């Protein structure tokens, strides 16, 4: 459903993505890992339209995304969350979901909103101010909820589990798995916790210095010497340049 | 009694006083009625300004441009093409809305940059009005602009007629503001304030919505400007594009509470009428200083403005109700 070919992003003299190429199939779950600064969030920004690539090809279900603004990509079925939750100011949890549904999915369906609130365990917070009255787990759940309300077929989750305690993380993972199965979504998840990735995703991509250095099953990828080297910091200057 | 019902009762009573009480009590007092018309003219621009500021999240210092373009468009159409005055007034709004399209590139800017850009645009329109002598009469302006006609025996060209016209414009503008605020559009606009990119990735065409608010705000301001042109029957560029048409509505909106629908109206009536009826007789030269002090006090003690203060609900605790 999603194909990236030679995607490159330059920020002035800094090359955030060198030449990213991969594809995502319908219903597939992929873990995207890599050290800090590897270009993971930039990759999400490129797919969702927040950042325009300097070069490369980007197709979603046969449509080139290159000239489409973020809101059109959302309406095509690409949903995303942000690493740092960005609830809509002075709106309740339900209003956050309503905005996403009305504009992203182009409809008003209160039943679906209730369903999302239930599946993300947010029902009792529905009328709370999303900016000031939620705990971190709830903020993270709302990020996922907003993306779900747009009725996506591809969900990009940027470190939705980061900062959560082990017990909360486990519960959140179960919710993500339930979301994926219920809505038959393709998912790409950025996550640093290898165990989490292994549990949720049968396929893992590893990004380092803006390049995909490994693509395969969690077992194979996390045994790859190049991946281990990228995480332990044993990268030569030549590789970095 | 629920809050909504209470609000409806208060609004109905206020409208009854405005449409029936004021004409009966003050219909014969041309001076006071003239002051109320001037206050409502400011109120109309203040509502339009607040709509853009509160819903669109844009602080404009250029509403004088829309006011001026609306007044000139209407006056020229009525004088040179013989367009009926009421139709010309609406077309004045259309003219201002069209002029706002030139300002759309400024929507890419945020905060003070947008405010400065729109201020610069306002100056461009003032220069055009001065230089296009053949159409606008240049610096000398336009005299004897057609007044509002007599319809069904009622003289809309008189003070009372003008009062009813501008009152209706202000009421319709406030209803439009309220309707948008309550709609999903209003919700999306509210959501955009703090995190525009987060709204775009869920499908909100944020720039389109902001553009729509700018065009609507310009239309309302243009209609008010057009009304004023036909009410006073005279225009020149310095008057039509005066910074006063920006500053007074902003002061009124902030004083009354620009995050509420009726705050700008209450603010305009309060500051203009109190200034003219109370402060001016006491301090003929410099009465506006007292107004400045009052505005500062309002910002310090009730940053949300007069309306939230009257409701005795601090702004921080009233976030849900704000647009």
UniProtKB/TrEMBL annotation, chain A:
The lineage of its organism: Bacteria, Pseudomonadati, Pseudomonadota, Alphaproteobacteria, Rhodospirillales. The keyword Lipid metabolism does not apply. GO terms for molecular function: ATP binding; ATP hydrolysis activity. Keywords: ATP-binding, Nucleotide-binding, Plasmid, Transport. It comes from Azospirillum oryzae. One of its GO terms (cellular component) is plasma membrane. It comes from the Bacteria. The keyword Ion transport does not apply. This is ABC transporter ATP-binding protein. It holds the Pfam family ABC_tran. InterPro entries: AAA+_ATPase (IPR003593), ABC_AA/LPS_Transport (IPR051120), ABC_transporter-like_ATP-bd (IPR003439), BCA_ABC_TP_C (IPR032823), P-loop_NTPase (IPR027417). Residues 2-234 form the ABC transporter domain.
TrEMBL record, chain B:
Keywords: Cell membrane, Membrane, Transmembrane, Transmembrane helix. GO terms for cellular component: plasma membrane. This is Amino acid/amide ABC transporter membrane protein 2, HAAT family. The chain crosses the membrane at residues 9-26, 32-52, 59-79, 85-107, 114-140, 160-180, 211-233, 239-258, 265-283, 289-310. It is found in: Cell membrane. The keyword Cell inner membrane does not apply. It is a multi-pass membrane protein. It comes from Azospirillum oryzae. GO terms for molecular function: branched-chain amino acid transmembrane transporter activity.
